[in-house]
Specification:
By secondary structure, the chain is an alpha/beta fold. The chain has helices at residues 15-27, 47-57, 73-79, 93-109, 129-137, 151-173; strands at 3-8, 30-35, 64-68, 85-90, 115-119. It is 46% helix and 16% strand. The structure holds coenzyme A.
């Protein structure tokens, strides 16, 4: 049985991630989608929220497991003796340098941790979680970018956060 792990921030999961999940789930017997932390980023959604979005978005794919880990991917890989390989999506050549660096660092930290890349499908090459968040904050149409089952939760939280930030900024200008 071959098991792959698909790591990411998923803040939130987009149709681009889902495209990789659907394709990888057909290549491996089991796919573990793991929500991790990039310490250089600030996140809009908590880890439980990001996991819940992923669970909803992948509910119809039986061989997908959703997990989270607060540490190095190489250590998580080590803990999961059932996992054989890391899967990552590549959207454009601009992703390559960063992903290449991460793949080598992970292998350096854990020689068992090999990475394979899946090219993103053409219709999702420009999608990113930040872009989705901006569309949601300004009330744009999310239907092409995010699984329908999580539109409302994303929009509600992000518009609320955005309204709060605007109100705070306005209050500061009147101080
Ligand atoms: N379709 C659409 N968007 C995609 C995508 C795809 N197929 N693949 C990646 N993206 C987007 C993401 O939405 C994200 O967009 P954003 O920057 O607007 O949020 C961006 O590409 C990067 O995504 P991701 O691959 O999740 O990278 P990341 O830097 O957010 O997180 C971790 C990478 C969490 C996997 C990495 O930091 C990690 O392993 N953390 C644990 C600690 C560790 O081991 N560090 C690494 C040592 S090298």
């Amino acid at each position: 049985m071959k098991t792959a792990i698909y790591p990411g921030s998923f803040d939130p999961v987009t149709n681009g991630h889902l495209d990789i999940i659907q394709r990888a789930s057909k290549m491996f017997d089991k796919l573990v989608v793991v929500v991790l932390i990039n310490p250089l980023k600030s996140y809009s959604f908590t880890i439980p929220e990001r996991c819940e979005f992923l669970r909803k978005a992948t509910a119809d794919i039986p061989n997908v497991e959703i997990a989270s880990f607060d540490g190095l991917l190489a250590d998580y890989f080590n803990q999961r003796q059932d996992v054989d390989v890391i899967v990552k999506g590549l959207r454009a050549t601009s992703d390559f340098e960063y992903e290449f660096q991460m793949a080598h660092t992970n292998k350096d930290l854990n020689p068992r941790a090999e990475t394979v890349f899946i090219p993103a499908s053409l219709k999702t090459t420009f999608v990113s979680s930040s872009m989705v968040k901006q569309v949601a904050m300004f009330g744009g149409d999310l239907s092409k970018y995010v699984p329908a089952c999580i539109h409302e939760e994303i929009r509600t939280k992000l518009t609320h956060d955005f309204d709060e930030a605007k109100a705070l900024a306005e209050a500061r200008t009147h101080e």
